[in-house]
Amino acid sequence: MEDSQLAQYIPVLILGLVAIGFAAMTLGVSVLFGKLGKRSRIKDTAYECGMLPVGEGNTRLSVKFYLVAMLFILFDIEVVFLYPWAVVYKDMLTQNANAIFGSMLTFLGILFVGYIYALKKRAFDWKN
């Protein structure tokens, strides 16, 4: 007796309903018990190691911070692409070794050119 394809998704549907029910129940309990607690202005102030908060809470960060963060993400994604290639490289050698190795060298070459460009633009220099 073969099950239909839609019947195979019933456990996924049940899991989704349980997840939505759990989220709704958690939010409902939070609202219920949150309104029972009494809050004062002193409880709602930020706690900074015993000091009274003075000034603005959000400080502006330099653009360099965001640039370095983007470069980190770029090189992190490079590793994400490089790792699966390295895992299956031995199996791929039997099919077309030169094209596979050449495509990876091209990918790393383009990445290296971007790295040299970032070095020349002093993107990694924190002092400026």
Task: Tell me the major beta sheet.
Answer: none
Helix content bin: 55-70%
CATH class call: Mainly Alpha
* Tally of individual helices: 3
State the domain count: 1
Gyration radius (Cα, Å) is 27 Å
Keywords, please?
mainly alpha; flat; 3 helices; Methane Monooxygenase Hydroxylase, Chain G, domain 1; single chain; 128 residues
Descriptive report:
By secondary structure, the protein is mainly alpha-helical. The chain is 70% helix and 0% strand. The protein has three helices and no strands.
Q: TL;DR of this structure?
A:
With 128 residues, the chain is mainly α.
Give a topology summary.
Layout: H1 10-36, H2 41-44, H3 63-120
